[in-house]
Amino acid sequence: MTTDRENQNAFERLAPPLQRCLWEQGWTGLRAAQLEALPLILDGREDVVITASTASGKTEAAFLPLLTRLWQGAGRGVVLYVAPMKALINDQEERLSRLCEPMEIPVFPWHGDIGETPRRRFLADPRGLVLITPESLESLLFRRGVDMKHLFGALEAIVVDELHAFIGSERGRQLQSLLHRLEVALGRRVQRVGLSATLGDMGLAADFLRPGSGGGVRIIVSPDDKKSLQLALKAIIQTNSPSDINVAAHTAIAAELFEKLRGANYLIFPNSTGMVEFYADALRRRCEAAGLPVTYFPHHGRLGKSEREITEESLKRGALPVSAICTTTLEMGIDIGAIRGVVQIGAPDTVASLCQRVGRAGRRADEAAVLWQYCAVEELSENSDCVAGLYPDLLQAIAVIRLFLAKWYEPPETGALHYSTLVQQVLSLIGERHGTTAADAYRTLCRTGPFDGVSEADFIELLRALAAADLIFQDANHLLLHGSLGEKRVNHFSFFAAFPDSQEYRLLNEGKELGTLPLDRRRCAGELMIFAGRRWCIAEIDHDKRRVDLTPAPAGRLPRTRGGAIAVHDRVREEMRALLAGDECPIWLDATATGLLKNAQKDFTALGLVKNRLLEEGKSVNLFVWRGDRTQDALAALLRANGLKAENQGICIQVRNASTADLQATLEKIAVTPCPEPAEILDRQSLGTPEKWDWVLPDRLFYAGFASRRLDLAAAHALCSASRDWT
Question: Which of 352, 376, 405 is the last residue of a domain?
């Protein structure tokens, strides 16, 4: 426990203008994480990861000592703040400006929606706080690489917000490379501070922040705030229908939410953009039919900035209680005011995601957070298979909540090769340096950089593929330069993002942009759609300019979007099996959910799945290994490579047109042969181009990169060796 005197001593170490500002804002002292971070950042210049729940003061834990350092240096230093979302930067600009104004420290937001004025001000006098996205930092390095020592010569520290959102993704590897390239350009190490939600292995978060030296990163774990939770899970039976979204069940859920959520601010999380639009439309129409103000607003990444800001402002400053129907866009730490509770519709993919969502609620003193989980469960019929009787979605929802209550979270996925991102970084480094040698590029990006899993031979093979595609060429002085296609690609605005350009259409109504959607060229005028929670008719569509003009309509169709599926972890599937193998029914299930779980537990026993892993049903065999998606996807790929029609269904792997004996023989065959290379079992045409620059990769690197991100072949092969005991 920190004494009042210790707290006061720490507070007095802050810059005097900062102390006055905090007192004026009503601060009575520093929180635990802020107290622990203060000497590490102010004195030690150590790398630090600060992990805590949402609204626990992580931002101040980093910036109070950093702003004090800037003040001590007469305000001439620079702090770089990197965030995954433009909206988070906009929010933090307002928040940090309140601290910086009394100290006369400028704050510069820097992303695609910001005009040139703040950038010109910083370029003319490089000092203060720069709040930037990875894409804008990429652009800055690419366009002004020779100016880095001038612009960031006084760089004190780099703060990475929402660190957990970067780990394991191509965008995260891009960020690691950018931070390393910046240090190489400056010729010195720069302190890094990561702000993160709690992860299952904080050591991996430290390794991500400082690749190769994670052991030297200090980790600050804020104590739990012991916030109470009101929890209920409700199952809604969906009668059999041809609908692919269980309209009847979701309509019933919408009707219930309309009655329950009118007294406070809530966040509603369906599991797709299409379902966000379904609920936004259904709830809007209920408000209009009742003659009430519309208090339900959508929020997702395809909505235009102005549409998202309407939702954010309504939550933060609206005169009436409102609810946002949203995707992961509101998981991040954007300030949206007091949220009473969270509604989750459908099973969460990860415990960490559920933790982030629940962390948005119940911030007021003595107020419990609320979590209402809804599951639409299809009614069983005589045509239903045995898997349907185990109610996988309901089972996963219960398992994820139980792990959340037990304070278990997924460890971050690491070890992916990310060759696609390496292609981008090679092209960007050439632009930054106006040409570079292959040896220097390998040294910067791989040997000392974050692509250390890439061998020299693999790097040379990659460069040859880039040259063959006319992305690069080597001149007489052995400098790598952009080829003609490379010049075209790097000079397009989409180059700076590590993720693919989705080729989306702009949707407009009376000249106002509502957002964007991926549409195919078969769409035409007169068709209906639902977007931004409203119903529209396509008045005009220009496929060449990818522009759609909309007019209001009395009916509409939901958009179909391809969301990137999040892999379920081994531990979640193990918890699902434990639920089925036992007889416990959590008290927070409603009567319908309790009855369904009990029935599933009885079926699990009756089907012999307590001991057996193989269950033959008709012309198919279901293989229950209770592992995460990376292992089950790999096992399905091994089976397909050996002639079986296998597909990962989540709760099991289904093998069609096969018997138990066929499957057992194939598993034994795989077990006695060496674990194959990815190229031996994968089909490139069926995989498409999951990452932006995959199209240019030679087959061997493409397959190896894909497998490193999506498959655990070693674990799947080991399962085959244990298969003799499965029947």
Answer: 405
d(CA 132, CA 36): 26
Residues 109, 399 contacting (CB under 8 angstroms):
no
556 domain-assigned: no
Quote the domain boundaries for residue 303: 229-405
Residue 711, both tokens: 């498959």
Query: Are 381 and 451 in a shared domain?
Result: no
The count of structural domains within the chain is: 4
Do 212 and 274 lie in a common domain?
A: no
Q: Running along the chain, 727 residues long, what does each successive block of 10 average in pLDDT?
A: 73 90 86 90 89 79 94 90 90 91 93 85 94 96 93 95 92 96 96 89 92 93 77 89 66 94 91 91 94 93 88 87 90 82 93 89 79 93 87 96 94 90 98 96 96 96 97 95 96 90 84 87 84 91 90 83 76 97 96 97 95 91 96 96 94 94 94 94 87 95 95 95 78
Find, among 184, 283, 462, 628, the residue nearest to 472 by Cα: 462
Provide the token pair at 53.
């729940």
The answer to whether 414 and 686 are in contact (CB under 8 A) is no
> Cβ distance 473 to 426 under 8 Å?
no
Asked whether residue 158 falls in the same domain as residue 216, the answer is yes
Tokens read off for 184: 């190489």
Of the residues 370, 405, 440, the one at which a domain ends: 405
CATH number of the domain bearing residue 445: 1.10.10.10
Dist. CA 725–CA 706, nearest whole Å: 31
Residue 320, CA atoms < 13 Å, CB-side half-sphere = 12
Strands (E), 84-185: 107-110, 128-132, 155-160
Distance CA 482, CA 465 (A): 13
Which residue matches tokens 């292959």? 438
Count CB-CB contacts under 10 A for residue 286.
Answer: 17
User: What are residue 678's DSSP bridge partners?
Assistant: none
> Quick one: 664 exposed, middle or buried, by C-beta within 10 A (0-12, 13-18, 19+)?
middle
**Whether residue 179 sits in one domain with residue 35:** yes
pLDDT at 244: 47
Residue 16: half-sphere exposure toward Cβ, Cα within 13 Å = 0
Residue 158 φ/ψ, nearest 5 degrees: -120, 125
Cross-strand bridge partners of residue 361: 339
Note whether 275 and 384 are same-domain residues. yes
| DSSP conformation letters of 264-329 | S-EEEE-SSHHHHHHHHHHHHHHHHHTT----EEEE-TTB-HHHHHHHHHHHHH-SS--EEEESGG
Amino acid identity, position 605: T
Distance CA 651, CA 381 (A): 20
Instruction: Tell me the C-alpha distance between 647 and 627, whole Å.
Output: 14
Residue 656 in any domain: the answer is: yes
The amino acid at 29: G
3-state helix, strand, coil in the chain (%, to 5): 45, 20, 35
